Structures are given as structure tokens and as C-alpha cells.
Amino acid sequence: MATIHAPASRPVGPVILAPVAAALFQILTPMLPSLGIGAPIGSQSDSVSTLVTPAGWAFAIWGPLYLGTLVFAGYQALPANRYDPLLARLRWPAAGAFLGNGLWALYTQSFGLSIVSVAIILFTLGCLLRAYRTLAAWPTRFSAGARWCAVLPLSALTSWLTVASTVNIAAALRFHGVDAGGSAPLIAAAVLIVASAIGALALLRSAGNPPYALVFLWALTAIYAAGGSTSAPVALAALAGGALIVVATLIGLVRGGRRKWF
Hints:
This protein is mainly alpha-helical. It has nine helices and no strands.
């Protein structure tokens, strides 16, 4: 007998508007340095770069990521989607993540990559992981609209923030004067392996979510191109991490991910 899903509770204005407002906020805050408020995030990052900081070109991904958040915000606000049960579960976590991105940019541009920036990015990642778990556990097939406008942007953003949180922690340690000295390459390599193992576990638990995997590989490639070009341990760790991500993705897809994500 077919299961009938009860409609989601009637969303009120703020529930619909929160993702829209937060998405716009996160896109506008990085523009403040052009108005003389704070320093560009790139320069703040360069001042405390480490062996796990990705090459500069990697951050171009923020363009598609920001576009994806706007697509999600607009999609969930469409009248036809306001009572969608999946979107009802995603709205607040997504709004929290978009808000966190904006707050992180606002703080970092003014005060640098301190421990406070770590707290903000971990809050943001927590919101995204909640959305990611919802997507991974969703029992029915996604519609084409949900796949492109919710699954893709939120999965990609979760993946990038998974790596970015690790990079932020390393940068914050340097910001506060913690220097590993001659052990830095080995510590950076170990950090990369741990981060990749976390990403692989997330992929195994989500049936090999392809957008998550691709963005994670993008980040590892950029780390290989930067820190890996000066440190053999970092280069090997980036390659090993990439292998973990690929294997976990393939296992997840074989275990039902192809039906879930495609």
C-alpha cells in the first residue's frame, strides 16, 4: 500500500525568507573591504597560510557555491515548494549555514583568522552536516528540481566547509603564534589524512554523494598544488586522501548510491 506523506506544517513568512536573507547576507559581506571596511579575506588568509592552505585558484569555487545558495533559497521559496517535506527539513539548517558564512566573512575581514573564526566556521559546518544527514537519510527518490537545487548546492557547500574548517584551524594556530617548526610537514600530512578519513566516512554514510566527493577532490588537488609542491609528506597525504575519497565514493555508489543520487 502506498505511503501518503502528510504535508509539512504551514511555513510562515520568516521560515521562507530566512534562507533568502541569509544567502544574500553571505554574498554581500565579502564586498565590505571595497568600501573600506576590513581587509580582503584572501590577504588575511595569506598572512597565516600553512601547508594545508589550498592554492589560491581553489577559492574560485565560491562563485558556484554562492550561486548554489541563491538557487536553493529561490527554489525553496517557490509557492509550489513551500510545503515540501524535504525542504521543510532543510530550510533552517541552510539558513544557519548561510548566516554563518556571512558572519565568518564579516569577522575575518576585520579581525583575522583567530580562534573566533574557528568557532564560527564550526557552527556553519554543524548546520550543513545537519542538512547533509537529512539528504543522506531521505527515504524517497529526489525530484529533478530537488536534486539540482537542493542536493547539489548543499552537498557541495558541506564538502568545502569540511576541508575549510581544517584549514581554518591550522591558520588560527599560526595566528595565535603556535608553530610546529620542523615537524610541520608531518603534522600537516596527518591532518590531511584525518580530514580525508572524515570525508570518506561521510561518503560511506551517504551512499557516495557525488557533489560532496567532487568538491573534496577539488580541495585536495589545490592543497597538493600548494603545500604539496614544497613538502613531500603533504603531497603524499593529499594523494592518499584523494584515494580514500574515490574508494569511499565508489563503494557508496555500488551500495545503492546510483539509485539515490542519479
